[in-house]
Design the sequence.
């Protein structure tokens, strides 16, 4: 097969002032992010350029239970690679307090393209800031950030790796930067659908799967957009009609609790359809156990409220049984076995 | 055909060399240093914690006054601007603050009164005005991993959990307000990028920082609460968008005025 590489290489030169002593430490190696041919080009934050050393550090941290107050919980406790970095539970109690959380752990897929906020309501603008949420929340990792810096400083491997990655000491800022770098490498682009799109070996879709693809593009495209199968935006998808409960700092009001824009009442972030077969249960509170339940919801169980997304008919899409089967069949083609078994993303 | 685009990121950060002999570069003859003071006042009185002040028909007793001053810029008589690098300063008057449960289980922020910032390496010249912002610019407000100046998530002036945004609290004033027999514990805070306010203040006369010891700006707390009914709305935060916006506008439009030049 002929492979056409198109390079667009920008440099990351960090020249510190011409000090008399030349630094002997090697510069971190810039990570060459491979954009899948059928994907749009992500916009990266140049404040935290991805480097091999930074990603490796982020991977160490992602799987390390030292990041929790009781040293029993890591990021991976709720973001399991074999489930496309989700946890299989509606609402987890895997946090330090054992309390059932209010929100479903999202899958971590193609975060390098996620440029419109994190959490189900978009409360964090970037992965770096986002990480402080679960790290410090008492029902999640409940980590004292001062203690964390001390704990990591006691591990020579970490002292070395922070120096390699950032030429700097261990700090909470560098911890979240490294975690963000690793998370941006969680690229899922090798499903059977992708191979079909790129006309690669193994990329065959059955007529039923193709029919499902057509239906998804016709009916679901306005939110589950393009090759990412998400618009990274926030919508009221009709799973509730009443958002008057403002308990828990507006937890049930979706993006409204962040934006205080009445149009955002009951809106939650669009999850990608990629690896959907692995990321049950579904919705911000995990209320739907099976993918079939989700399709049934959109087909005819829409709850109407003033902020219901305009692209969703109030009586649903009225899929017939064959259409539901076709959509199911297509969604299964978005499962990326290479992603969930990729050793570079696994526990180091 | 399999097409793979590979690219990497640009981050070119050139800092100047010490032995830069580029003769075209304008070097200041003498770099001056000065102190910029933000003198908190209640009308004509000096601001103080735990002391009754009458503002209009109400009595206020403050327990906290904190705000970020950022991107401080001095403007010379020709209009050239000098942005003080890394200028993010937490101005405050607070008693011991219990910040336990924020980023640490047990965390006390010690009592502190801070009204002045020391600035060095000001290019020589006559300066006519100063410009600064109340709050944190969107680039830094949106990304708590960026380190600059005094920005920190360890001092209780940020939201990192599940409250409104992972971002900085731009200003925070708290205390008790009374009118007749009615009273309220208030906590009035501003934040969010839309409420980042830039203030420009002209000096009464041009200032040469190689001779002037400093400049004093006044922050009048009566102007901060002007038009804000803290008995009706004692908790001002993102959930009270209109009141918060009015509060931020007060900081940006009338609370700060020129005070004096210290020679």
Sequence:
């Amino acid at each position: 097969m002929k492979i056409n590489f198109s390079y667009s290489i920008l440099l990351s030169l960090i020249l510190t002032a011409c000090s008399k002593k030349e630094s002997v430490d090697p510069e971190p190696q810039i990570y060459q992010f491979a954009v899948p041919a059928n994907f749009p080009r992500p916009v990266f934050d140049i404040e935290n350029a991805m480097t091999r050393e930074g990603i490796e550090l982020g991977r160490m941290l992602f799987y390390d239970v030292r990041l929790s107050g009781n040293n029993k919980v890591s990021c991976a406790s709720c973001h399991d690679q074999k489930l496309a970095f989700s946890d299989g539970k509606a609402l987890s109690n895997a946090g330090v307090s054992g309390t059932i959380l209010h929100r479903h752990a999202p899958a971590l897929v193609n975060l390098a393209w996620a440029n419109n906020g994190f959490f189900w309501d978009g409360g964090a603008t970037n992965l770096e800031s986002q990480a402080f949420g679960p790290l410090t929340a008492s029902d999640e990792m409940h980590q004292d950030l001062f203690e964390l810096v001390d704990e990591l400083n006691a591990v020579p491997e970490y002292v070395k790796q922070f120096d390699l990655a950032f030429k700097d000491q261990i700090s909470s800022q560098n911890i979240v930067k490294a975690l963000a770098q690793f998370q941006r490498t969680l690229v899922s682009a090798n499903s059977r659908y992708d191979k079909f799109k790129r006309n690669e070996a193994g990329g065959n879709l059955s007529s039923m799967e193709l029919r499902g693809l057509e239906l998804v593009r016709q009916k679901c495209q306005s939110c589950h957009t393009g090759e990412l199968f998400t618009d990274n935006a926030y919508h009221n998808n009709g799973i509730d009609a009443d958002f008057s409960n403002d308990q828990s700092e507006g937890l049930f009001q979706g993006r409204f609790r962040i934006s205080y824009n009445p149009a955002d009442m009951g809106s939650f972030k669009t999850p990608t359809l990629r690896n959907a077969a692995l990321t049950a249960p579904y919705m911000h509170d995990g209320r739907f156990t099976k993918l079939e339940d989700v399709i049934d919801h959109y087909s005819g169980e829409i709850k109407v409220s003033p902020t219901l997304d305009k692209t969703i008919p109030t009586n649903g899409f009225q899929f017939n049984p064959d259409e539901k089967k076709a959509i199911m069949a297509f969604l299964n083609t978005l499962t990326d076995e290479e992603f969930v078994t990729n050793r570079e993303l696994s526990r180091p | 055909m399999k097409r793979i685009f590979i690219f990497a990121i640009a981050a070119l950060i050139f800092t100047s060399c010490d032995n830069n002999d580029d003769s075209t570069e304008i070097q200041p003859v003498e770099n001056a240093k000065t102190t910029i003071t933000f003198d908190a006042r209640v009308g004509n009185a000096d601001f103080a914690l735990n002391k009754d002040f009458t503002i209009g028909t109400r009595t206020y007793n403050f327990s906290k006054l904190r705000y970020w001053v950022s991107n401080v810029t001095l403007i010379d008589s020709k209009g050239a601007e000098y942005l003080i690098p890394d200028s993010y300063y937490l101005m405050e008057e607070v008693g011991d603050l219990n910040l336990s449960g924020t980023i640490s289980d047990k965390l006390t922020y010690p009592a502190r009164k801070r009204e002045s910032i020391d600035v060095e390496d000001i290019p020589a010249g006559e300066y006519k005005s100063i410009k600064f912002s109340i709050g944190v610019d969107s680039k830094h407000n949106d990304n708590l991993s960026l380190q600059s100046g005094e920005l920190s998530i360890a001092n209780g002036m940020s939201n990192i959990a599940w409250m409104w945004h992972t971002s900085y609290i731009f200003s925070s004033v708290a205390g008790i307000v009374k009118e007749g027999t009615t009273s309220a514990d208030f906590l009035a805070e501003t934040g969010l990028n839309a409420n980042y306010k830039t203030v420009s203040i002209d000096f009464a006369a041009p200032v040469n920082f190689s001779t002037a010891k400093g400049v004093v700006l006044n922050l009048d707390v009566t102007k901060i609460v002007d038009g804000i009914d803290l008995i009706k709305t004692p908790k001002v935060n993102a959930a009270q968008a209109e009141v918060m916006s009015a509060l931020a506008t007060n900081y940006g439009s009338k609370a700060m005025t020129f005070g004096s030049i210290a020679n």
Q: What stands out?
A: The first strand of chain A starts at residue 3 and ends at 8. Residues 207-220 of chain A form the longest helix (14 residues). Chain A has two domains: 46-188+340-345, 192-337. The radius of gyration of chain A is 21 Å.
